[in-house]
Design brief:
Layout: E1 4-7, H1 11-23, E2 27-33, H2 40-44, E3 47-52, H3 63-73, E4 77-79, H4 89-98, E5 101-102, H5 107-114, H6 116-125, E6 133-134, H7 141-151, E7 155-159, E8 168-171, H8 174-192, E9 197-201, E10 207-215, E11 221-233, E12 236-242, H9 249-265, E13 270-278, E14 284-290, H10 297-304, H11 308-316, E15 333-340, E16 342-343, E17 349-350, E18 353-354, E19 357-359, H12 374-378, E20 385-390, E21 397-398, E22 405-413, H13 416-429, E23 431-433, H14 439-447, H15 449-453, H16 460-464, H17 476-500, H18 507-511, E24 514-519, E25 522-531, E26 534-539, E27 542-548, E28 556-561, E29 564-573, E30 576-581, E31 584-591, H19 593-599, E32 613-615, E33 620-625, E34 632-633, E35 638-644, E36 647-652, E37 657-662, E38 669-670, E39 675-679
Parallel strand pairs: 1-2, 1-4, 2-3, 4-5
Antiparallel strand pairs: 6-9, 7-8, 7-9, 10-11, 10-13, 11-12, 12-15, 13-14, 15-22, 16-17, 18-21, 19-23, 20-22, 24-25, 24-31, 25-26, 26-27, 27-28, 28-29, 29-30, 30-31, 32-39, 33-35, 33-38, 34-37, 35-36, 37-39
Helix pairs in contact: 4-5, 5-6, 7-8, 13-14
């Protein structure tokens, strides 16, 4: 077994590999750029080597810099994680020439499967179902439009060397094909150093389901069942689960057999993923094979009990797989939510800055690999697991140079409904401040009827949130529980205030029982009757029991309301509280009846009018400006392109108008809400 390995990656995947290597008694080497000098993976590793400036194309994907770090530290093997050089054949060849083991597949398999065009041809020859499309390279935007017309719209324009949703666009007509071709080509060049593009038919109402495979150097290969990855935004996975709520045993076995056959056809060894698109009749078609560890691998580990990183290391060291296909069963259900530095209220645009608060929920052991946890039992949730794979820490910076993913929150439970409920509570407990993030959106999905029923496709987000995410409207029953909780918490705060003020009379009598809770424009008269163990709150004709040990100043309140867990993120605001839960962001005021009467008379402050301004929705770099002063623009017309976190974002006109002035130019770095242009 290896004594020292180098992780040629950063962030949460580098931390993930370090954890397994440490458990196996293997020393680790981290590499880092200028932006990552104080990163968590650098702190966790036994050694760390600086490899260059912040941009990935000057550090993490420069093979010579990684090779020099290997020579400097004497690492015997390299785990590439995912992204960067993980599917780069030249990197695998460079390691082989140096006598260093690549913890991944042979370079020939990377070459065959890492290129989407080549992999589809090989898959077809191996008898695997493939999606119709044009497998040759495409010269320019006009050719892309001609090919798309021949295939038939809609089409998917994809970077041959792409991954992680980068370099991918859906086109529904010739104009979108031309525009999508150029954007995909630009993203592919900046992210992978390879701008080759191909086009295939886009299957409508599809599910994205992938098969995890694992093969050794002795001819053994197995599949570790499937992952459902249909909740995507801009072709980037957001929520994954294992197993799929859609597959039956026969389809699962057929997809697994094809995945293993493809792996064997290219002499594959190590962990890999064969991705399929599945229609409503469970017909499945090969999309691509990722010759690396996947971001969503934890859900497979949670339902199988197999540490995939450990198996990758052991396979690379020449060991045979310790199990056969018949040994691999499915136990329970697992869900992964990807926490991104993306602001859902700004159409999921990237956010950068300092994590002024980063408090993940406590990790709890359960499931095939784990054991019971205390808080979950206290919350009466049964046998559950909570796992958080992360690469950040409180006080750290979210940089514009890399992928916006902050963490991967996973839950496991014996059944899908229980795993969803565990995820709801874990998301509510996750505290992130200082940047925009998608926690509210993830919570909203967990409560969405389509997700709960399992009736999802890759179009879920586009169909259910066509105007973007504007927050969640909670049902009345949930608002009643929150109002009762807010009243009980306010009572605790008022008792504390009266004690501090020096009033030594009966504090509880002074605080009183009757209050009015304002949640937005809703009013809830309540009566609170307290006892030694909690409070009973009368609201809307019912009595709700509230129990909690929350104290004023705590940012997280864990309560039992009506015998069910409720977790609230709590911030003080003038004369009230900001409470966040289940994707809702609520401004709550608890007032005495007379104060409530007066509050109704207060005027409402009007928001400033920005309808004639195009504001930069995220920190980023201006790539292009498409219009000039005096130009008349139409609704939907492209106005400017902003690049942030390796993704191009096209800003379009919301309505017809005339450009009055342009305040930005290509190459300029902008902050959030800086003015790009003004309209007459």
């Amino acid at each position: 077994m290896f004594k020292k390995i180098l992780i040629a990656n950063r962030g949460e995947i580098a931390c993930r590999v370090i954890k397994t290597a440490r458990r196996m008694g293997i020393a680790t080497v981290a590499v880092y750029s200028d932006a990552d000098r104080n990163a968590l993976h650098v702190r966790m590793a036994d050694e760390a080597v600086h490899i260059g400036p912040s941009p990935a194309n000057q550090s993490y994907i420069v093979i010579d810099r990684i090779m020099e770090a290997i020579r400097q530290t004497g690492a015997e093997a390299v785990h590439p994680g995912y992204g960067f050089l993980s599917e780069n054949m030249k990197f695998a060849e460079a390691l082989e020439a140096e006598g260093v083991v690549f913890i991944g597949p042979p370079s020939g398999a990377i070459e065959a499967m890492g290129d989407k065009i080549t992999s589809k041809k090989i898959a077809a020859e191996a008898g695997v179902n493939t999606v119709p499309g044009h497998m040759g390279l495409i010269a320019d935007a006009d050719e892309a439009a001609r090919i798309s017309t021949r295939i038939g719209y809609p089409v998917m324009i994809k970077a041959s060397a792409g991954g992680g949703g980068k370099g991918m666009r859906i086109a529904w007509n010739d104009d979108e094909a031309r525009e999508g071709f150029q954007s995909s080509k630009n993203e592919a060049a900046s992210s992978f150093g390879d701008d080759r593009i191909f086009i295939e038919k886009f299957v409508t109402q599809p599910r994205h389901i992938e098969i995890q495979v694992l093969a050794d150097q002795h001819g053994n290969a197995v599949y570790l069942h499937e992952r459902e990855c249909s909740i995507q935004r801009r072709n980037q996975k957001v929520i994954e689960e294992a197993p799929s709520p859609f597959l039956d045993e026969a389809t699962r076995a057929a997809m697994g057999a094809q995945a293993v056959a493809l792996a064997k056809a290219v002499g594959y060894c190590s962990a890999g993923t064969v991705e399929f698109i599945v229609d409503g009749d469970r017909n499945f078609y090969f999309l691509e094979m990722n010759t690396r560890l996947q971001v969503e691998h934890p859900v497979t580990e949670l339902i199988t009990g197999v540490d995939l990183v450990e198996q990758m290391i052991r396979v690379a060291a020449g060991e045979p797989l310790p199990f056969a296909q018949t040994d691999l069963t499915i136990t329970g259900w697992a869900i992964e939510s990807r926490l991104y530095a993306e602001d859902p209220y700004r159409n999921f645009l990237p956010s950068i800055g300092r994590l002024t608060r980063y408090r993940p929920p406590a990790e709890v052991a359960a499931g095939p690999m784990l054991a019971k946890g205390k808080w979950l039992e206290q919350a009466r949730r049964g046998d559950r697991a909570v796992r958080n794979d992360t690469g950040v820490h409180e006080g750290g910076e979210i940089s514009m140079f890399y992928d916006p993913m902050i963490a991967k929150l996973c839950t496991w439970a014996p059944s899908r409904p229980e795993a969803i409920e565990a995820m709801r509570l874990a998301l509510d407990e996750f505290e992130v401040e200082g940047i925009g993030h998608n926690l509210p959106f993830l919570s909203a999905v967990m409560d969405h009827p389509r997700f709960v029923s399992g009736e999802i496709t890759t179009a879920f987000i586009a169909e259910e949130y066509p105007e973007g995410f504007q927050g969640t409207t909670l049902p009345d029953a949930d608002l009643h529980r929150i109002a009762a909780a807010a009243a009980a918490m306010h009572r605790v705060a008022e008792i504390r205030r009266t004690r501090i003020s020096g009033r030594l009379d009966n504090h509880e009598r002074h605080v009183g029982e009757n209050w009015v809770v304002f949640i937005g424009d809703q009013e809830y008269p309540v009566r609170i009757r307290a006892d030694r163990d909690g409070s009973t709150v009368s609201i809307a004709g019912q009595d709700l029991r509230v129990e909690s040990d929350w104290k004023p100043g705590q940012s997280l309140a864990r309560l039992m309301v009506d015998d069910r867990p409720l977790v609230l993120k709590v911030d003080r605001i003038p004369a009230g509280y900001r409470l966040r839960t289940r994707g809702a962001d609520l401004r709550v005021h608890v007032r005495r009846p007379r104060a409530a009467e007066l509050a109704r008379l207060m005027p409402v402050k009007q928001a400033p009018d920005t309808s004639k301004l195009l504001l930069c929705p995220m920190p980023g770099l201006v790539v292009r400006i498409n219009v000039a002063p005096g130009d008349e623009v139409q609704e939907g017309q492209a106005l400017a392109t902003i690049e942030a976190m390796k993704m191009e974002n096209i800003l379009r006109a919301e309505r017809k108008g005339v450009v009055k002035s342009v305040n930005a130019e290509p190459g300029q770095s902008l902050k959030v809400d800086e003015i790009i242009m003004e309209f007459e």
